[in-house]
Amino acid sequence: MGAGTEPGGSSTSDEEWERFLRESVSGAADAPKEPSARAREVARRLREEPRREPEGWRSYTPARPKRRKGWYVFGLLASLVLLAAVALAPGRMVSLIADADSAQLAAETARPTQAPPAAAGQRPTKEEPFRGSPAASWASGAEGITVPKAEAVGWMSAADVERALARSRDFLVASSLDAGVLRGEHPAKAISLINPRQKDVQDLLKTAFHTPTEANDPLLLFSRFQPSRTRLVGGTVKTRGRLTYQEGERGALRVTADVTFVYPVARANASGDGEIVRTIVRRELVLSWDDPAKVITEPGTFSITSYKYDATNGGCGTPTGYFTPPFDTDRHTADAGPEFDPYDRTAPVGQSGASPDNCASATRS
């Protein structure tokens, strides 16, 4: 009986059957192989996809970007709104731009090499008393007075110098920023920091507040306005300046203060929309913190080596013991002296041409 039967009924010889079994085990070179599952899947996709002719390299056309019509419409509407705002309220738009440009300046650590740039020519208001002034970007009060890092000097340790610098700034605050002193009150706190044994200064203090003269004027050391005539607008004083120090005579700590104060003021009886004037005072003081073992002094006090100031819009003529800002008809342009920029801090105090007995004309306020 044969080993197998073909479909047509023909039989296979024993030799052929044996050869078939042997080739099935060893594998013939031309024996058909069943395709893998991945090959079958690829072949199926190729049969199902429509045939496409390859695109020539010269006929390639890049895809067009999608047009975002919404953004164009939004930009057009925003531009129209901005133009309308400028047309309806140009002053307000200029004010907003000026505010953006008036970010607070960094602290002054050395004498500047140039004057502040010119600001927009805008008049001050009750809400914005420093509008149109370089002082708009200055710090307020004591924050505008830079105090350097303390190191040991002469008879003082670093800690002693730090305390002396702090009290030197306290004097500037008590003499030129204290609200009561600005209203004409007696500057008792500031005076308590001055060496009571310093005869020339004590003589000045005894007479200046009662019978002021050019030589004994309280304005030499203190900023004061007569409350019946003048009031501070907004309650804020802008400042810019610094303290420096070095070793002085007999090992003393010599502190120099160079600070500009900007006071926005109006008539005492003026309405809210009355004229606002900025009185600008730049002071330079040299204070000596002496060694009690070498100089007669009181602990915690200093002696004043020198004092001088420049002022604009503070009045001139016979001393009254108060700054007298010129309002409206009070201005005497015919008596105006040389022009100077009160915001220019590049030169030492006293070289601008402005002084209590010289009514210099400020180029800006």
Question: Would you write up a description of this structure?
Answer:
With about 375 residues, this protein is an alpha+beta fold. About 25% of the residues lie in helices and about 15% in strands. The chain has helices spanning about 15-25, 35-50, 70-90, 90-100, 160-175, 180, 190, 200-210; strands spanning about 140, 145, 230, 240-245, 255-265, 275-290, 305-310, 340, 360. Helix 3 (about 70-90) crosses helix 4 (about 90-100). Residues about 1-10, about 55-70 and about 90-100 have low confidence and may be disordered.
**Structural class per helix/strand content?**
alpha+beta
One letter per element, helices H and strands E, the order comes to: HHHHEEHHHHEEEEEEE
Distance between the termini: 130 Å
Biggest sheet descriptor = 7 strands, mixed
Overall 3D form: elongated
Write out key terms for the chains shown.
single chain; 365 residues; alpha+beta; seven-stranded mixed sheet; 26% helix; elongated; disordered N terminus
Summarize the model shown.
This protein is of the alpha+beta class. Helices cover 26% and strands 16% of the residues.
Q: Helices and strands in order, then pairings?
A:
Blueprint: H1 14-26, H2 37-48, H3 69-88, H4 90-101, E1 139-140, E2 145-146, H5 158-176, H6 179-182, H7 188-191, H8 199-208, E3 230-232, E4 238-247, E5 253-267, E6 276-289, E7 303-312, E8 339-340, E9 361-362
Parallel strand pairs: 2-4, 8-9
Antiparallel strand pairs: 1-4, 3-5, 4-5, 5-6, 6-7
Helix pairs in contact: 3-4
